[in-house]
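task queued by scheduler; priority normal; single chain, no ligands, no partner chains; default sampling; output format set to structure tokens
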Amino acid sequence: LQDEVDQVIGENRVVQLSDKHKMPYTQACILEILRTASITPSILPNCAVRDSEVGG
């Protein structure tokens, strides 16, 4: 990731939106982080609404 940023951007300038298409690995890393790091819980707490009896 750092190698790609250094190669495309260099050391003397700031990243710009126009650089996006030149950095596919960086783009893939960011999208994967966004996909896996949800800000909301994916599993809601479970709670039984009534008692159950199994096998008798």
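post-processing summary
- The helical segments are 2-9, 24-36.
- Residues 14 and 29 are 19 Å apart (CA to CA).
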